[in-house]
Design brief:
Layout lengths: L1 E3 L3 E5 H4 L13 H14 L1 H6 L3 E7 L7 E6 L4 E7 L10 H16 L14 H17 L3 H5 L7 H10 L3 H21 L27 H13 L20 H7 L29
């Protein structure tokens, strides 16, 4: 266990679906398992402390479990995270995807609006997916310029063009290439029990009338992670976007969170949170 800086038990990335990890350094081992988890939390220690909380990390090693989950306890002062190293035995697992699994769990606490229907603090599953690539990945990988650039030849020309259209600065484009490559790896993992793999260029056509806050379908999750990778707006870490002290899904919350997401009609649709799980409450965005 590692500790950093009315219990509500929450869902698990892995209990419902687990992200894989395939990265530049190959398949992570048990020692790297702890290192990659700790690296994410070390980089977000200030944000956790500013919210009057500390992170308690439980590493479940030599486990058959393949996922992660999080909850809060002690009146919200302790954010507890559980990670199972059975994920290391999963095909198509990598350093970067493991990092994004951790980002997803942290996103439940930091990503903000929209929130789970049964929680006044936890971001919806789709929002945690979006946060993992939009806000968390840049914090982790922004300075790895040479490594990020190496991913330009590992993704398709169409995906590379979307990164180039989304960002004007080459270092930010390179980071997008790396993130898209990680999402491509997740695509294979998410579809391991499906007859047809999720696609990077054939999005889920579903259009919800009300935001779905639990785990979306595999294709929808891939679409969401791609949208986060393409969003060129910086996430505002000064507060939890849209929480407003109550954590409710209201028009006021959506407007408060708007500056941390790519949602306006004037922005390219590929940056938007997909309609397969997200439905705006505010007509100003569409």
């Amino acid at each position: 266990m590692k500790t950093l800086g009315g219990n509500i038990i929450l869902f698990s990335w892995a209990l419902c679906s687990v992200l894989p990890v395939v990265a530049q350094a190959g398949q992570p081992d048990s020692r790297k398992f702890r290192y990659l988890i700790d690296d994410v939390f070390d980089r977000f220690a200030v944000e956790i402390q500013k919210r009057g909380a500390r992170a308690q990390i439980e590493y479940h090693e030599n486990s058959s479990g393949t996922g992660a989950f999080t909850w809060r306890k002690e009146g919200g002062r302790v954010w507890e995270f559980h990670f199972y190293d059975g994920v290391l035995k999963t095909n198509k697992i990598s350093d970067d995807v493991l990092s994004l699994i951790v980002c997803h769990e942290l996103g439940h606490h930091l990503a903000g609006y929209p929130f789970k229907d049964d929680s006044n603090w936890s971001s919806a599953e789709g929002q945690a997916d979006y946060f993992s690539t939009h806000a968390c990945a840049p914090r982790l990988w922004r300075e790895a310029h040479a490594l990020n650039a190496s991913f330009s030849t590992k993704i398709s020309a169409s995906m590379r063009n979307k990164c180039d259209d989304s960002f004007s600065a080459q270092p930010r484009r390179d980071l997008c290439y790396r993130t898209v490559f990680a999402v491509d790896t997740m695509r294979h993992y998410e579809g391991r029990h499906l007859k047809v793999l999720p696609s990077l260029d054939k999005p889920d056509p579903t259009s919800v009338s009300q935001t779905f806050t639990r785990h979306p379908a595999a294709q929808c999750r891939i679409d969401t992670q791609l949208a986060g990778a393409f969003c060129a707006r910086e996430f505002d870490f000064s507060s939890v976007p849209g929480h407003l002290g109550v954590g409710r899904n209201t028009v006021e919350a959506e407007r408060d969170a708007a500056s941390s997401h790519c949602e306006e009609a004037s922005l390219p649709y590929l940056m938007h949170r997909p309609r397969c799980w997200f439905a705006s409450l505010d007509s100003i965005f569409f």
